[in-house]
Design a protein that fits this description.
6 helices, about 230 residues, two-stranded antiparallel sheet, about 30% helix, alpha+beta
Length: about 230
């Protein structure tokens, strides 16, 4: 879920709040326990930012559908990296992390970016260093499941992957790849991909409290078998 989509959802939620009964928690996919965690946070006096953070954190720990949190969606090197974003609907402040390595609490790091820096997005190794400076634990995100997913992908000649117009042919062979300088008629077609629970947004969550305050957030381990560095 991009910042643009999150902003649109926050605007929609502001409009819906006038007609809806609040407080309210909404999230994508049937992650009911994440919604319950967010609701419980609101009911116990937490802010909407607390609710969004706690709801997404629940999915990060529970590894919802294998598409949120550690141990899922390994990249081409077999490493799991995380992306997350949180938005304060009242101030329009945003914090996000991308390609976050070795830090499990991606949504909490995103909130730290929003609350402790003037930036919106930090990525890669620098995001991990920021997280460690903020007191987050550095630990391995690999699990037996992610190792198995990566091994099976290698055995399947690295299919599917995200390469095109390279040599050797990425549709039949693993890399490393080099660019085809003279494309001409040799351009590789990009195969159509049907959307399902495993290849687009994972958890996106919105919370509205009884005063109409709104926050939104998302957390994901991204596209499986992605080129390292993809956010």
């Amino acid at each position: 879920m991009s910042c643009t989509v999150a902003l649109a959802l926050v605007v929609w939620a502001h409009e819906a709040a006038a007609a809806a009964q609040v407080p309210l928690v909404i999230n994508t996919w049937p992650f009911a326990d994440a919604a319950r965690r967010a609701w419980s946070t609101l009911a116990s006096g937490g802010s909407v930012l607390d609710a969004v953070e706690q709801g997404c954190s629940w999915c990060e720990v529970a590894q919802c559908d294998g598409t949120v949190g550690y141990g899922g969606s390994p990249d081409e090197r077999g490493e799991t990296t995380l992306d997350a974003m949180i938005m304060n609907g009242d101030t329009m402040e945003v914090g996000g992390v991308g390609d976050l390595r070795r830090i499990k609490s991606a949504i909490s790091v995103a909130r730290a970016v929003m609350e402790h820096s003037t930036h919106t997005l930090l990525v890669g190794q620098s995001a991990s260093i920021f997280a460690q400076n903020m007191g987050f634990l550095s630990e391995d995100l690999t699990t037996n499941r992610s190792l198995s997913l990566h091994w099976e992908w290698l055995q399947n000649k690295c299919q599917p992957n995200s390469w095109k117009n390279v040599s050797p042919n990425p549709e039949t062979t693993c890399g490393p790849y080099k660019p085809i300088k003279e494309l001409g008629s040799k351009q590789h077609r990009v195969s159509a991909c049907r959307a399902n629970v495993h290849n687009h947004d994972t958890i996106g969550l919105i919370a509205i409290d009884k005063f109409g305050n709104i926050a939104a957030g998302t957390s994901t381990n991204g596209q499986i078998h992605k080129i390292p560095g993809y956010v």
